[in-house]
Amino acid sequence: MGSDGELAAASTQMEEAMNELNQALGLATFRTVDAMSEVLQSIVGNGEFLVSNATLIEERTAAIQDNTTTIIDQNQELASNQKAMTDIQQETLQKLGEYFGQVEIAPKPLESPPEPISTVPFNRDPEFINRATLLDVVNKRLAKLHSDEKDTNSRSRVAFVGLGGVGKSQLAIECSYRIREQSPDTWVFWVYASNTARFEQSYWEIANRAKITGRDDPQVNIFKLVCDWLQDAKNKNWVLILDNVDDVSILQAPISVNKETQVKNGNGAFKQSLSTFIPQVQHGLLILTTRSRSVASKLVNDSDIIAVNPMDKSQASALMEEKLGMQANKENVLELIEALEFMPLAIVQAAAYIKCRAPRFSVPQYLETLQKNDHKTARLLNYEAGHRQRDWEAKNSILITWQLSFDYIRKTRPSAADLLSLMSFFDRQGIPEDLLHDVKAQKDASGSDDDSIADYDSDDEFEDDIMTLRDYSFISMSQDAKVFEMHRLVQLSTRTWLETSGQIERWKELFIEKLYNGFPSGEYEDWGKCQLLFSHVKSAMSQQPNSEESLQKWASLLNQGLSYALDRGIMIDIEPMAVKAMKAYKKVFGAEHPDTLMSMGSLAATFWRLGRFPEAEMLAVQVAETSKRIHGAEHPDTLTWMSNLAAILSDSGRLQEAERLKAQVVETSKRVLGEDHPDTLGRMRNLALTFSSLGRDLEAEALEMQVLEAQKRVLGEEHPHVLITLNNLAVMFLNQGRFLEAKVLEEKVLEARRRVLGEEHPHTLNTSNNLAVAFWNLGQFPESEALQTQVLETRKRVLGEDHPETLISMSNLASALSHLDRLPEAEVLQMQVLETRKRILGEEHPDTLLSMGEQAFTLLSLGQSLEAHTLQVQVVEAQKRILGEEHPNTLTSMNNLASTCWKLDRFLEAEALHVQILETRKMVLGEDHPDTLTSMDNLAFVFRDLGRLPEAKALETQVLQARMAKIGGNHSDTLESTADL
């Protein structure tokens, strides 16, 4: 028998040996963990590198999974070695005991079960923004979980589903803390479900933290062990959170009972899918977060899927303000969160970027950079800031987050990734299904041999692709199931992903090809389809391709869109559209190619419609002169450009120059094309309008009648061109005061246009408007107001509320109401027209200035003479600067100003203005022009008020004689002159 001292020494020696072995094993484990951390840090620390090298992401991710698996294996091996050492220790001590007869080995004491705890690895976010409606569903399930009466039909699973970065995990974290607050006796377990290795690691943590019996067994199936424990009702209530279950293959991963069994049975006879080890019991609640609706449906009922969408405006604003932690202008914040589409991760990312660069960087600067171009936006949204409430595997950049999902879709369903690639170039809303089919046909036509483009010949395949993209919330359907929508940032992320992989040009060219083939010519009959596609043409403006063939189609597409926009009165963004088309044509064909000249002519027309007459004239002159030099003065194209230039001169108020040029074009056109050619007849009609504007009504009428007879003979009685001429003739009758003749002719034209063109064609509405004017002048005020109101409502519906012709209708109706002494109604309409023109056309567009003049007239009628005078002075000064002192609009405004001066008893100012107007009109329009005669009449009134009766009578006599000779004794103006004398 050994002594007690000898036994103690032997035991001490044995313990020291065991400690050395444990330290060695622990050091090996920590070195493995450190090695894995270095790999992770090298990846996480360089977000831009991840974006630029998708292949390396996959390799590194695989390495992470391998290292994680290695740790788990080594943990199991460590446990096995520790058990072996324990067995050796027990065996040695038993032998020592037998030898000394004094040692008894006590059995290992049983562990006492711990109180329920939480394994959630994140601190609570003190800046969490409550999204109550989303958490309500979970709260209701928890109430049932803690109810004494268990409902056997109660559903015990819910899933948060939405885009990456939309806040699913943050909701789950907040849920976990609320659960523990409300019910401290409820277990809350967090499981990383992004891959099998992390899933297993999380189950090991549950086993250790809950001290589950059997976890020390080196051959234990940890999945079955934890699942069995969770299913046991004795273990009270629990909540299991599976975070980032994005890959369906994780749920289908085969799990063996243990290694020994697997070897014995071969071929994995005892393998089960991982999903079988996710329990479903009445005393437990499963909360799932995933980007994929289809993955969620594998674990929960469709009715238990909670769609997590971007925040609403108030939530997003609160989040930005919390994360910024500084004062910022609320309007700037709202504008920024709207640009970020209310995406929580993007907002947190932006706030971190601004905060770390403050005060040298602000919210407006971030917004300005964000809106510059794709490259600048991508750079901002690739920024990765620390986010304590996100897993280390999850990316803190919204773009990288989504691009990882794109990579997954590219692997599992390439055709869906192709569809997403194409859709990323459209406008984010109103993406039509009919332009998304037949990608294979487009590929063959382009000669591409890239087999990765999806074959959409099968409707079933297309539907599967749509379902895949909807599952991941990358696209959504509008109210029309054949029209799709996307988040703008998803589109940007997709294009950035394509650029990184060198595929962006191919998909950009395919997008242009499909839109080029799908966009109609722009005729009235096609306006419906043009309207649906126009936003996508605007989107194409920023997608200039590199290849010459695609560049030509791109330029043509922009030009078609521009033509439609000009017809529809769409003024926003038309100038850059025209400029880009012209530059592209120059690059492809050179500066003097017919298509290039055509695009320059379109730009001139754009300037013209924008009221920028000097720029329009300069460009139109350049086009006409170039065409003369290349094709000759009598070439049809040259005649077209000269005719367009004449129209610009006419609208610029240079009527004499316009008349000379139009007459020259008409004579050349007759000689080259023939007197009955449609182009010749159209140019004669335009010349007649100029005669009318110059007050040469008899010449204008004679020329219109000549055109009318030729058109009837060549084109037929009801050809649209014939109806245009008839309408012009009726307008001339109106200008001449022949209101009854005008009414009869307008009614005839209106009936024909309704039959030939339809009730809502712009030309039909124009005739209705003219007929309303005839009614008004004939004293048929109710009929006039009713027709003007009808025209206005139809133009609003057909052309849009902002179309120039709609605004003309509103202005006409306002004038009618004003003359009926319904001044408040008139003022409201006039203000609406004025504000719309300011917004669309600018403060100093000629049409805007006309509206300001009309507003001044209404103020005058309301007795606000001083306010009217101030506004009229402003209008006159602007028109002199923009249109020139001799423009008809300027002279009309000066005449109105003179009348206001007269009402204010400022007779000398009124006289000076009237004299200036009269002299200018004599010079520009001629002595017997109706407007000149009106000026003489107005000056005569001033002379009367100044007591200069002989001068007044002389002027009035001259006016009467001129009117008798020009328009006859029965005209209303002539009768008024007679009464004045």
From TrEMBL:
Coiled coil: none annotated. Gene3D superfamilies: P-loop containing nucleotide triphosphate hydrolases (3.40.50.300), Tetratricopeptide repeat domain (1.25.40.10). Residues 411-499 form the DUF7779 domain. It comes from the Eukaryota. This is DUF7779 domain-containing protein. The lineage of its organism: Eukaryota, Fungi, Dikarya, Ascomycota, Pezizomycotina.
